[in-house]
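Example 3.2
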Amino acid sequence: MRRRLTVLCLFVACLLVPPIALAPPAAHAAYPRVMYSLSLPGEGRGVTVAGDLLYVASGDSGLYVFDLSYPAAPPIAGTCSLWGAGSVAAAGDYAYVIGRPAHLHVVDVSNPAAPAVAGSCELPSSPRGFAVFGTHAYVATQYAGLQVVDVSDPAAPFVAGSCSLPADALDVAVVGNLAYVANTVSGLQVIDVSNPAAPFVIGSCSVPDGAYHVAVAGAHAYVSAHSAGLQVIDVSNPVAPFVAGSVSLPGGVGSNGAGDLAAAGDFVYVTESKDDGGSLWVVDVASPAAPFLAGSCRVPGASSVAVAGDYVYLGTMTVFTGTGSIPGGLTVVDLGRPADAMAVRLTASVRPAVVGYNGLVKVKGVLSDVLSTPLAGHTVVVQRSTNGTTWSKLKMVTSSSTGALTASVRIVRKTYFRWSYAGDETYAGVSPRCSATCKASLTPPAVPSSVARGLKHTSFGYLRPQHAGGRAPITISFYRYSSGRWRPMMGGTWSDWKNVSGATRYGILYRIGSEDAGRWRVQAMHVDKDHARTYSAYRYFVVR
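Structure, written as tokens:
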């Protein structure tokens, strides 16, 4: 799997690409359509679905957990920091993630909003694809063959056994007591793993142009063979597997050929990465001896794939084109809509970017189809979030004759907004997020108009909104008027806090030296992740 880093850039794209129909289509799979794309800072290097959750391994950005209750545009439910997250698998309350330099991490996802690493295991060589079956993870490694990791204790996984292979192992699928390994130039290797401590090869099958990814369903293994397309291998007799059928896939100039794949029902979904693009190919394998390309759609940077219901979820890598780049992340392809279905394009913006406390901002957007034709008279929901991942409904807005959307909202902290259109069987989509920040409400310290020198004094001010735990960073600065200008004299961050009704009260204990008589002033300043830098008014006083 290719690894690159990219700059964080969150966007939503909805593309409509006419399907390639090289043979009579089978059901709706011949009409795949991109419905939603989300860029991620570490790209989409691995993807899997388990239950109602989607997991995306995103390089140095770690593991992203998505909620599939809205499968067309799943929101982020939680994240877990990991270094170099590559491939991912999941089962029950745990996700399993390959990370750099050569580790298998076990992540507790029993609370999807707060996934946490439960344990890790170091591997002897660079891990590639892997699979989890029962209490073991089976890891294909570049130079150390198949490694069998015991994960029965998530807090202490360990390598229980291994099997040497003649070439680089890049991917593995496991069914029962058999592991099927894509072994590049050595084709498909079938390994008996009934004894995890001593797995051994029982059969193999040569594959044109090498075996790079594998999926198994029933009596057949499906192998991506780069320029040789998809190979269908009969594994009904695992000791003597053989190629039962194959199909060439139209990569074209700059294509890296067939990539990751997933099997579901009578179809196999194959990714194609390309120097300046990429695709999802849908192959009908109802007749293993005569598979055919039933449909396709363009998915730039397509790298990894998982299928759930009527949707295909693709991890994508950043693609560099002649005019710029298309950032990698997650792309959702809809298989279930009718042939004349269309996605929507939603934009979002908010102005002004910074307002005062409880200030008014306007969230704007445009609803259109993918050809930029405005969609009028549709009800769209504006959602808000305080963290950019967990969203709540704010209000509903009807698009104008030009597709325009506008909502006026008051904010008391940094707030994210997006437009969400659940639509019908013809339209659906979610906009990228946007955000606005406000200042806090900060009163100056209450200081008497006249202060005696050399004595201790206490004064208070108020910060709104109330801060959790009664703590918030406030810097107090004192100035003395001397030689025609205000000179800074003393200051610092104070920690005397108390939450009162609707506000946080901060206190100051100070003393001014006996030699510093004259005109003084004091000012408070507050800034945190939820508020823009806020200065109070000055409070003037005289030191006698």
